[in-house]
Amino acid sequence: MAIWEQIVRLVEAMPENLRLPTLVMGYTGARIGEVLGLTPTALSEDDNILTLSGSYTRKHGGQKGSLKHRRDGEDRPVPLPDFLRDAIKSHIKDYGIKEDGYLFPGTRAKVINDDAYRKHFKAASRRSDYPPTSAPTT
Question: Of 13, 20, 87, 131, which residue is 20 to 30 A from 93 by alpha carbon distance?
Answer without folding.
Answer: 13
